[in-house]
Amino acid sequence: MKRDSRLSLVLHALLHMAERDDPMTSDDLATCLMTNPVVVRRTMAFLREAGIVASARGHAGGWRITADLSTVSLRQLHDALGEPAIFAVGHRNAAPACLVEQAVNAALDQTFAEAEALLLARFGEITLADLSADFALRYAALVQQKEP
């Protein structure tokens, strides 16, 4: 089953954008993300609609973050992307006549709902500023490691 990796892609793009003073073009972001600029534009459009990024055309154009990193949570980004399914696991049969399969489906439904609620709550606690700070620590450690 194919995974929806848009949240990961968006986080990656936003952290690259946060490290730059200038806007980043779709081509620049596509290079960073190893994807196609069309994928970048299509995905970033969701964030533009949510007021998280803005885009400008022309020579000095590109994408830039308009929201404060400390106010944007992973949950907001997940929601902006259209609330993609959290789990790729599903029922063998959505409306089974078999009572055993009905019991299995009920248990799976309840468990998935509980797990999704926990995950989305945690997404609400993590901000772009948190990820940016983690990146900064990792980068500083790498630089320190390379110094003689």
Description of the molecule:
The radius of gyration is 19 Å and the shape is elongated. By secondary structure, it is mainly α. It starts with 5 loop residues before the first helix and ends with a helix. Helix 1 (6-18) crosses helix 6 (128-146). It has 6 helices and 2 strands. The model has no long low-confidence stretch (mean pLDDT 92). The longest helix is centred in the C-terminal third of the chain and has 27 residues, at 99-125. It has a two-stranded antiparallel sheet. It has one domain (6-146): Arc Repressor Mutant, subunit A. This is Transcriptional regulator. One of its GO terms (molecular function) is DNA-binding transcription factor activity. It holds the Pfam family Rrf2. InterPro entries: Tscrpt_reg_Rrf2, WH-like_DNA-bd_sf, WH_DNA-bd_sf. It comes from Pararhodobacter oceanensis.
